[in-house]
Amino acid sequence: MSLDAPPRPPSRREAFRRSFLFWPVVAYAAARVTTAALAVVVSLLGHRGSLAALDRWDGVWFIRAAQYGWPTPLPMVDGHVAQNTTAFFPLLPLILRGFNAATSGSFLIVGLILSAVTGLTAVIAVGLVTRHFTDDERARRAALLFALFPGTFAFSLIYSEGFTITFIAFGLLALLKKRWGLAGLLGLLASASSPVGFIFTLSCAWVALRELTTEKNWRALLAPLLSPLGGLAWLGFLWIHEGQFNAWRATERGGWESYPSLVYPFHILWVVIRHPLSPTLTGVILFLGTIAGIIGGILAIKERQPAPVLIYGIAAAVFAAIAAPVGLRPRFLMLAFPLVIAVGTRYRGTTYRVILAGSALLLVVMSAQALWSNAVFP
Questions:
Q1: Which partner from 148, 151, 175, 272 sits 20 to 30 angstroms from 289, CA to CA?
Q2: Which residues contact residue 5 at a Cβ distance below 8 angstroms, ignoring those fewer than 6 apart?
C-alpha cells in the first residue's frame, strides 16, 4: 500500500500571493507607477526634466535641510521669521544626507526612493496592526483602502509621512502586544520625523496608566517616557542652535502663517455652508476632509477599535483639524490612519467597492493637482 506524499509547503512567493497583504501591495505599486508616469507627462508638457514635477512642495525643503542643515539665527523678513528649514523635523533630512554621502547619488532620486519604500512599509504596517484586532479579510480591506487613499500621493514625492506612519502603526502594534520598549523606540523615531509623532505618546500614556492601575506594571512607563524624546531632542537642538526656545513654532507662524485654532474646523464648515456655490478649491478640499474626519471618527468608535489605536486616530485628526490653514486635507487625514482603517473594516461588498473606486479616483485627482498646479498646497 502506497502512502500519499506529504503536501509540499508553499514557497515564499506562493505564501505572499495568498497573504492578506498581496492586493494592498499590488495596488500600492500600481499607484506609484501611475503617479510616476503622470509626473513624466507633466514634466514633458512643461518642457522640463522627466523628474522635475516630483521636485516640489515639501520635498524642496527636505532636500535643503539635508544639504545645508538648519539656519542660525532664524532668518527674518519684515519683522517676522521667514520660511526656512527649521519647520522640517530632522529624521528624513539626516537619512537623506547619510544615503547621499554613502552612494554619491542625487538627493532627489534618493528621497523619492525613500518615500516610495516607506510608503510601502506604511501600507504593510497598517495591515498588520489592523489584523491584530480584526481578521485577515477586514485587514485586507483596510490596507487596500489605505494604499489607494487620496493622501498617499505624498509617497510619490519627498515627504516624511511614510516614516511617520510606519513607526506609529508598528508602535501601536507593539503597544497591543505589550512590548513597551519597542513601542517607545518607535515613538521616538516618529517624533523625530514629524510633530504628529508626539500624538502617539498619548496612546503610550493611556496604556501605561492602565497597566499601572490594573497590573502594577511599571515597565509600561518605558513607552511614554521614550516616545517623545526624538522630537524633544530636536526642539532642544533648535533652542541651542538658533538661540530661541520656540524656533519651530515661530517658523511655522512666520514662514507659513500656521497656527493652532480651536474654531478653525467650524470656520471651514461654516464658509462652505454659507456660500455653497462659490467656495475656493482649498475650501472644498478642507470641507470634505473635515466631514470625512468626522465620519471616520464615528466609525472608529462604533467599530470599537482598541483604545490606543482609537486615541491616536482621533487625536491626530483633531491635531490637523485645528491647525490653520492646514486642516484635514487628504495628506493629514491619511496620518490619522485609524479612521481610514475604520471605513475599511466597517464596509464590504458593493459599498466597499464603491468607496475604494472613489478613493482611487480622488488619488489620481490629488496626484495631478499636486504635480501640475501650485493653486493648493497638498
A1: 175
A2: none
- Predicted model pTM: 0.94
Please answer whether residues 330 and 287 qualify as being in contact, where contact means their C-beta atoms are separated by less than 8 angstroms: no
| Residues spanned by the domain of 111 | 19-372
- Residues with Cβ within 8 Å of 43's Cβ and at least 6 positions away in sequence, in order, are 49, 50, 51, 52, 53
Q: Report whether 150 contacts 359 (CB < 8 A).
A: yes
CA distance 268 to 286: 7
φ, ψ at 106 (rounded to 5°): -80, 135
- Coil, strand or helix at 277: coil
The alpha carbon dihedral of 176, 177, 178, 181 has a sign of negative
Can you read off the three cell numbers belonging to residue 357? 473606486
Report the distance separating Cα 100 and Cα 106, nearest Å. 7
Express each pLDDT in 25-35 by its tens digit: 999 999 999 99
H helix count then E strand count, the chain: 18, 4
Rounded to whole angstroms, the Cα distance separating 142 from 149 reads 10
- 118 within domain boundaries: yes
Domain count, the chain: 1
User: Comparing C-alpha atoms, which of 143, 168, 141, 274 is closest to residue 223?
Assistant: 168
Residue 8 domain-assigned (yes or no) = no
Cα Dmax for the chain: 93
Specify the residue for cell string 506524499.
5
Flag whether 290 is in a domain. yes
Beta pairing, strands 323-324 & 259-260: antiparallel
Q: 209, 190, 192: which is closest to 200 by C-alpha?
A: 190
pLDDT digits (tens, 9 = 90+) for 195-229: 999 999 999 999 999 999 998 899 999 999 999 99
CB contact at 8 A, 87 and 61: yes
Quick check: 254 and 318 in contact, CB under 8 A? no
- Residue 144: how many CA atoms within 13 Å on its side-chain side? 23
What CA–CA distance (Å, rounded) separates 342 from 18? 23
